[in-house]
Amino acid sequence: MAEIGLLFDGFGVALSPFNLMLMFIGVLLGVIIGVLPGLGGANGVAILLPLTFTMPPTSAIIMLSCIYWGALFGGAITSILFNIPGEPWSVATTFDGYPLAQQGRAGTALTAAFTSSFIGAFVAVLLITFLAPVVAGFALQFGPPEFFSVYLLTFCAFVGMSRGQALKTVVSMMVGFGLATVGLDTVTGQLRLTFGFTDLLKGFDFLIAVIGLFGIGEILLTLEEGLFFKGTRAKLSPRVVLETWKELPRYWITSLRSSAVGCFMGIVPGGATPASFMSYGVAKRFSQDGDKFGTGKVEGVVAPETAAHAAGTSALLPMLTLGVPGSPTAAVLLGGLLIWGLQPGPLLFVEQTEFVWGLIASMYLGNIAGLIVVLTCVPLFAAILRIPFAIIAPVILVICAIGAFTVHTSVADVYLMLVFGVAGYVLRKLDYPLAPLVLALVLGDRAEDSFRQSMLMSQGTMSIFFSNALVGGITTLALVLLFWPTIAALLKRARGG
Q1: In sequence order, which residues have a C-beta less than 8 Å from that of residue 273 and are 6 or more positions away?
Q2: Above 70 in pLDDT, residue 403?
Q3: Exposed, middle or buried: residue 26 (CB in 10 Å: 0-12, 13-18, 19+)?
Q4: Largest Cα–Cα distance of the chain, in whole Å?
Q5: Model-level pTM?
Q6: Exposure letters 348-378 (e unless 16+ CB within 10 A, then b)
């Protein structure tokens, strides 16, 4: 197959000494980001993105994607050792991971988590390898109406899968749309909502927003909670690793099912967090020991970790092929591609073949590097949590400020970061999700441009979004996802009747 030849060419790019060094550095930084509750995958990538501007695009994206893999791995360490989820998607891992650690089986729990994470990500990378060119070729048929329908599908998926928070998800998304309108109107050339501030001529930079919302907001929340780390010691000996690997094959059905759930939720996009909870619930439902979940079952660690990594990795598929990110971190990576002058979408596979396949090859290598790093450095990362948070918090704050300042070398961006940080803190306190806001901020102007171009093409007729089978099918699917909670309730009532 042509994909195999291109993939080997990509390995030739990814295996250069410089890129290999960046992989291990990225994974190491990512695991630290995943371990620290004040940071996260999206924020860590956003903070370090300005540092990659002088690198070649392929090397830069390899390092950033490896930071992402490392953050995915690192979230499990705090969940299992300290019952503190380093990432939102690691909450489900605490249910059985921490009880295992309390039973003196922390090494078993960590090995199961890391190995399951590797398997989930590997399945997702295989999916990207063989499905991305097909999706990209299919997407060449897309025009403005089709692209708007895809954006609509993305927004509706967030609302429809919001787990009882549909109104709050819509409000968060509307805030993001409002922020995306600030600056220069690309269609008319008029300034919008700048209120005379020259710093807003280009609108709100998504990097500044992400650093503030995720980084500063999390620091404020953590300080308020008075976080104090308590946990168990972790020792990973080769014997424990080998014994755990012997035990894991009995859960192969759980791994496959969780990988499928994760890939679906990553592409839709539902996200790694709902994927981990859904996979845990399904595993509990079908397991012979389902009633013992929550007391320290290895299967209860395998299911959420496999699904979370499959979802986090497969979220890059729609980002690369359609320019539609499937997660907040994918949205940050999308912004990075745009900054480097690379336009995500079907033409990326035609015009930037070396970049695309170098990135895909690095996903395989970065995943292996991540597994090696976490299996050998767990005691070191666990020791980080014994540093008083009073020391960690200022360090994170300084890193965030440096990251915000280096975007445009502007002090105004640092103040904007603080404003977004307070906004993120308030939204989190009110239980409003931040991912829809970030997604709308990144995609809002592109969705608006596609919609207005479609209206110009159809002379203001909305029927253009049902003018052919492709756009009509995507639009219909978007509406089904938007109203899915209502449809599911009606179906349940009909069956009950």
Answers
A1: 88, 89, 91, 308
A2: no
A3: buried
A4: 70
A5: 0.64
A6: bbeebeebbbbbbbbbbbbbbbbbebbbebb
